[in-house]
Amino acid sequence: MNPVLLLRAVTLAYGERVILRDINLSLSKGEFVYITGRTGAGKTSLLRAIYADMRPKAGEIWVGEQRVDTLSPSEIPFLRRRMGIVFQDFQLLPYRTVYENVALALEVTGWKDKRKIRERVMDVLLRVGLSARKDAYPHELSGGEQQRTCIARAIVGAPVLLLADEPTGNLDPEVGTQILALFHQIARWGTAVILATHNLQHIRDMPAPVYLCTDGCFRATASSS
């Protein structure tokens, strides 16, 4: 089986300043990994390279059969339809309900059948524990509910890969733990998940393979238990 994500000897840089060098990583369907490291160590830059928001200085990035680092600007939207992205900031549309925020992710990728959209959205909202809040607006939601809405929006299109950049950073510890558990559940459903975090307690609470960004290097380290 081909990996969902493959990075070969990737180097990331801003101008001449190298951020991370010689990154090698392979993820298969349903795998979950953490990326950790101090602020500025390169976690976000690595995720940006995977979703084609920055080009590597060297190396290859593949999502399935699609090579990411050589895509033209017009090809990038098609890549992003195959992945979900969750940020620390919720970025929900304030005048759309939970249902409408999630459904929009399908509508902009060409879904036309309203019945199929509703079936898919309601299934995902049930999975993330938000079906009872489908008609609420973002300002009516708790921080945890807002992040669950973002996660629902990210996975409604059945992505092969989910990238999460400090997704619990704006949440209190108890809610953050619940959101972390949801990401692990999504991996069990079959989506490969990369979660960038500086919260080592998360890694201790829910162990998984860990990759550390430090001093320009990207290396596997033991997961805590």
Task: Give a quick summary of the entry.
The chain has helices at residues 43-50, 76-80, 98-107, 114-127, 143-155, 173-188, 200-205, and strands spanning 5-14, 17-27, 32-36, 58-63, 66-67, 83-86, 161-165, 192-196, 210-214, 217-221.
Determine the number of helices (DSSP H or I, runs of at least 4 residues). Answer: 7
Q: Encode the helix/strand succession as letters.
A: EEEHEEHEHHHEHEHEE
Number of domains: 2
CATH class of the largest domain: Alpha Beta
- Which term fits the overall shape? globular
Q: Biggest β-sheet, characterized?
A: 6 strands, mixed
Percent helix range: 25-40%
Overall number of strands: 10
Strand content: 25-35%
User: Which structural category do the helix and sheet elements fall into?
Assistant: alpha/beta
Mean pLDDT: 92
Task: Explain the overall architecture.
The chain has 225 residues and is α/β, with parallel strands linked by helices. The chain has two domains: 147 residues, 3-Layer(aba) Sandwich (Rossmann fold); 67 residues, no CATH class. Strand 1 and strand 2 form a beta hairpin. Helix 5 runs parallel beside helix 6. The relative contact order is 0.20.
